[in-house]
């Protein structure tokens, strides 16, 4: 308190710079501090034996955290053989940080050779889409789900982003329609798959579509011209603005896992998947199915189905 420093700060200083018998002498403590601060410092993974043990585990696709814990268990009385997961990451991502082979980053789960921090914004794709209309201009009737015919859409992507399937979800009934994209998910491919799908709907069920700012919808004006469907784009990095679609995509992963090639699924298979999902009772629809609620809209368009929660 008298020194104006936190107790933890003083405790760390005493632990680091006291002598072996526990005495703390200011000048000796200052000398120890200066020695520790000298650069360059020897690195943990400069030890060939330790680097070899880390490499043996990395090639088995172990994570740095698993390697850290296993080394502590395998060499409990050899602190020189212990290493933090952060040190392993630094050695893989920063050139010259130790003796790990440069190609070992491929055994990480991300496979990246550089680190991308969680808070680092990704490059926005919105600047590549011309003439966008943002969600802030979407009619207010779409927000409370009382008026049917407003849809949310997105892509679910397969392994290495080489294949994709389009998803459309009607906001009031949660009814799902899937787009078959056998020729990739370029803007032209998505446009050519979406137009005939939207054209199967009656006019009162094609009021609007909300999509994220992915460039696969760069041909949105062509879609609107062919179907008379207004298209709105979410704000960047706000997936909750398409909450129904995000939830549905999560359900679809049970049938269409991320780490697979989605191009193997035929149009008939996608119809079966959509039919099974649309036949699940939903609490938000008073335990009716999306198929039942959607059929009601087709037969009686003036009476929207019950939707109790977002």
Walk me through this protein's architecture.
With 310 residues, this protein is an alpha/beta fold. A hairpin with a 6-residue loop joins β1 (150-157) and β2 (164-170). It has helices at 7-17, 26-36, 48-58, 64-74, 85-93, 187-199, 220-227, 243-252, 267-278, 290-299; strands spanning 150-157, 164-170, 176-179, 208-211, 230-233. The model is unreliable at 123-127 (pLDDT under 50). It is 34% helix and 9% strand.
How large is the share of residues in beta strands? 5-15%
Instruction: Please count the beta strands (DSSP E, at least 2 residues each).
Output: 5
Count the DSSP helices.
10
Biggest sheet strand line-up: 3-2-1-4-5
**How would you characterize the largest beta sheet?**
5 strands, mixed
What fraction, in percent, of the residue positions are helical?
A: 25-40%
Task: Sketch the topology as an H/E string, one letter per element.
Answer: HHHHHEEEHEHEHHH
Arithmetic mean of pLDDT: 85
How would you describe the shape?
A: elongated
Structural class: alpha/beta
The multimeric state of the shown protein is: single chain
Alpha carbon gap, first and last residue = 53 Å
What is the CA-based Rg, rounded?
A: 29 Å
Low-confidence stretches: 123-127
């Amino acid at each position: 308190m008298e020194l104006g420093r936190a107790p933890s700060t003083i405790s760390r200083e005493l632990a680091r710079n006291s002598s072996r018998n526990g005495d703390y002498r200011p000048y000796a403590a200052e000398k120890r501090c200066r020695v520790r601060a000298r650069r360059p410092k020897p690195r943990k993974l400069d030890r060939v034996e330790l680097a070899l043990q880390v490499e043996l585990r990395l090639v088995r696709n172990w994570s740095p955290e698993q390697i850290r814990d296993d080394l502590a268990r395998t060499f409990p009385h050899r602190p020189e053989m212990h290493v933090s997961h952060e040190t392993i990451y630094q050695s893989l991502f920063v050139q010259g940080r130790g003796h790990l082979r440069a190609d070992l980053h491929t055994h990480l789960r991300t496979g990246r050779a550089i680190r991308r921090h969680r808070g680092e914004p990704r490059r926005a794709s919105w600047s590549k889409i011309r003439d966008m209309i943002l969600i802030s201009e979407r009619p207010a009737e779409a927000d409370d789900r009382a008026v049917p015919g407003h849809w949310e859409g997105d892509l679910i992507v397969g392994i290495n982003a080489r294949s994709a399937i389009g998803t459309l979800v009607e906001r009031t009934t949660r009814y799902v329609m899937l787009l078959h994209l056998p020729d990739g998910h370029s803007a032209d491919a998505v446009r050519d798959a979406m137009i005939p799908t939207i054209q199967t709907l009656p006019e009162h069920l094609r009021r609007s579509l909300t999509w994220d700012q992915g460039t696969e919808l760069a041909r949105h004006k062509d879609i609107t011209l062919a179907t008379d469907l207004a298209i709105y784009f979410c704000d960047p990095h706000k997936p909750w603005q398409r909450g129904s679609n995000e939830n549905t995509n999560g359900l679809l992963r049970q049938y269409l896992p991320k780490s697979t090639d989605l191009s193997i699924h035929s149009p008939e298979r996608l119809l079966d998947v959509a039919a099974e999902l649309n036949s699940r009772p939903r609490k938000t629809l008073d335990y009716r199915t999306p198929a039942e609620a959607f059929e009601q809209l087709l037969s009686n368009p003036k009476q929207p189905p019950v939707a109790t929660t977002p």
